[in-house]
Write a structure and sequence with these properties.
Chain A: Pfam families: Peptidase_M16, Peptidase_M16_C. Chain A: GO terms for molecular function: metal ion binding. Chain A: It comes from Boseongicola aestuarii. Chain A: Keywords: Signal. The structure holds two protein chains of two kinds. Chain A has two domains: about 200 residues, Cytochrome Bc1 Complex, Chain A, domain 1 (2-Layer Sandwich), CATH 3.30.830.10; about 160 residues, Metalloenzyme, LuxS/M16 peptidase-like (Cytochrome Bc1 Complex, Chain A, domain 1). Helices cover about 40% and strands about 20% of the residues of chain A. Chain A contains 15 helices and 14 strands. The termini of chain A are far apart. The N terminus of chain A is likely disordered. By secondary structure, chain B is an alpha+beta fold. Chain B folds into two domains: about 200 residues, Metalloenzyme, LuxS/M16 peptidase-like (Cytochrome Bc1 Complex, Chain A, domain 1, 2-Layer Sandwich); about 190 residues, Cytochrome Bc1 Complex, Chain A, domain 1. Classes of the chains: A alpha+beta, B alpha+beta. Chains A and B meet through helix 2, helix 4, strand 13 and helix 12 of A and helix 2, strand 5, helix 4, helix 10 and helix 12 of B.
Chain lengths: ~425, ~450
Amino acid sequence: MIRVVLAAMMTIALAAPLKAAVEIQEVTSPGGIEAWLVQENSIPFVSLEIRFLGGSSLDPEGKRGVTKLMTGLIEEGAGELDAAAFAEARDGLAASFEFSVQDDALSVSVRMLTENRDEAVELLRQALVNPRFDEDAVERVRAQLLSGIRSDLTDPNWIANRTFDDMVYGDHPYGSSSDGSLESVAALTRDDIVEAFRAVAARERVYVGASGDISASELGLLLDRLLGDLPEKAAPLPGPAAVNISGGVTIVPFDTPQSVAFFGQPGIARNDPDFFAAFVANEIFGGGGLQSRLSEEVRVKRGLTYGIGSYLVNFDDADMLLGRFASANDRVAEAIGVVKDEWANIAANGVTEQELDEAKTYLTGAYPLRFDGNGPIARILVGMQTIDLTPDYITSRNENIEAVTLDDIKRVAARLYQPENLRFVVVGQPEGLEEIN
Amino acid sequence: MRRFIAVIIPLVVALAGPAKAAEVTSFLLENGLDVVVLEDHRAPAVVHMMWYRVGSADEPRGVSGIAHYLEHLMFKATDELESGEFSATVARNGGSDNAFTSYDYTAYFQRVASDRLELMMRMEASRMDGLALVEEDIATERDVVIEERNQRTENDPGALFGEQRRAAQFLSHPYGIPIIGWKHEAEALTLKDAVSFYEQHYGPNNAILIVAGDVEPDEVRRLAEQYYGVIPPNPNVKPRNRVTEPPQLAERRLSYADPRIGQAYVVRTYLAPERDAGAQEEAAALTLLAELLGGSSTTSFFADKLQFETQVAIYSAAFYSGLSLDDTTFGLVVVPSEGVSLAEAEAAMDQAVADFLEAGVNMEDLERIRVQIRASEIYEQDNLSSLARTYGAGLTSGLTIEDIQAWPQILADVTAEDIMAAAEKIFERRNAVTGWLMTEGSEELMQ
């Protein structure tokens, strides 16, 4: 049942030919649950990343925030144990289970010592199969969620994010806060929470990555114990979002010294033939380092912000090109002008040969450095599976980046960067900035 | 259930540090540069860090923020490198680099494939004594720093409140001044200020090199001799001689309201001893006290009293980190439930502390924490960057390698009596600053 795929992690970068090999084993448990494993026995613990596709976007109509609230309750009592007893049992094993939820997935990040792994698995199984959702725990966690919402309502970053998402995604779940509103969260019942748990925690949409001190056969048995009792079917996913975006500037007046600017436009699908070219183009344009064009023009040359970037974001139901920065109220208009100019520039002219070469050596050299410990490796393994990659992607990924040509970038930049569709949302008291609808 | 709460806890409680996590080698170059090598051969990568024993608490008065501003300027031109060339070269080699400034240290680091180590050393050596600042870099980078302050502090009322509380906590010691600097002083920093600070504090005899990853100590020594060994010691470097806090005789109380506050809370900090070389026992007891009192939002004494037994609070915590050159703080925070006033929240917090002093240490709770301390030594082995930072922060905070390695055992040896003795001593209101962060329009007055 256990198929082993060797995927030597190679880089053919000019500069940094790392020789590390990450050996991914594709494991299928006796009960039919699949997982990817990187076995590394030198430190006696294992990291598991368990991801259920369909996160806060599964919130039913009128029940916004229920998946978030439910996620906060999974560890607050399970089986025979109430919240405190569960936490004591977990801490006594020195295990850690972190439950988190995003728009598209609910994630469980697990760390367990080899010496007491069976007990830790049994405890986690209780949370995944028999969460209690006790009334007192519901009220306690609901109050925490409401407090967080109250804080967010006066946070300029949150306001910018919400304004942008509402404008772009409308009625799709992406269009509203996954925390819900003060009203929607106040109205949620225990039944809603139980239903939200059933909607997401099912075998048909679970992905698992494991890294550390565990063999393939041990992992197979662990998967059956941990996840074997979950139901097969989850609730239907919401389907693609209709992205509604037009170029312009939206201003939300807010009394604070520094304006927060979010910007974005439609992006490019992960399976588009030009995706890698777009990825490299955006690394040059707005990637992580201080070397990107946006950072060079807005921060380094003009000192207009502490940080600026642009990101290709592939949600399950929408592909976007997004970015953000913050500038003092009297300087944000200038910064927006610079961003617009750069947008038009790359669309019209692409990038230079030197920029392309440098981006390639950076991206191919940095990739192996991501495999930095059991937790990060387990997360990478899950991320790959959820977007239907195969283990040999670890090798082919850098080859794909090396294959991008200057012409590819020019073609994709002309298509990707659309100055006419670039929308800014600015929260603050910007001076000399006009709204453009 | 910490994740929904927007309150920022100023210091993360680090339960344990490393012990035998990686093979550790150390040596001293003739020019005074300390070198620490942490071997981990699992992946062909290396973290190269240069830590300087200088931070914002070493700044002259009136030029607050100069240590952090200089950290930004260290990425500009040197005798051998053009402005920006350092980071661009790291990126071209597939690596990442950055830097950070704290009260007691300034550190620069790169993470790259291990066969790039020599290149990193060549560049880092170049800016150890060859920084070549020019006016044009200075002005725009100061604007960047101001935008950083805007982003971190001016736009965040919780951060502004934190600055005010720290200023009240330290009557004379520079820990009361923000690392990034007071805004009016940071705006006025000059090229001369930066050069003067650099010439006063930078040099091999005020630095610690940490190399962690797939390296051999002999090779690190050879390269370090070649690139850093040739730099003469800086004669301007003097031992750090910080001012001593006067006796704190009067409790300080402050309140801050801002329309941008959505959730009120009460926070109190007490002046507290830090970890000292050869004497870390009291700090270890305080570390465990913070853990028992408010280290878990489900099982701690505070959680039990304030969130489970009563529903006074939606969140409560205690926090302490002993990693500091001079005296630090031990803190408590309570976020009241809806309908509970800050006065009631503070009274409940005080009652919970009194109840803890009365009840003493629950041995089952202490045993669970000991299990976690032992486990953290295993988990720590998997995170080399964090290990390197632990050594860097420890060594620049006056500890020795032996102190850092002894820490987990010292924590494990703390008894219930030690914890209660530390507790009896720490909750001294004359040393304390109590702050109320309030929503605008709140009618409540601080008592």
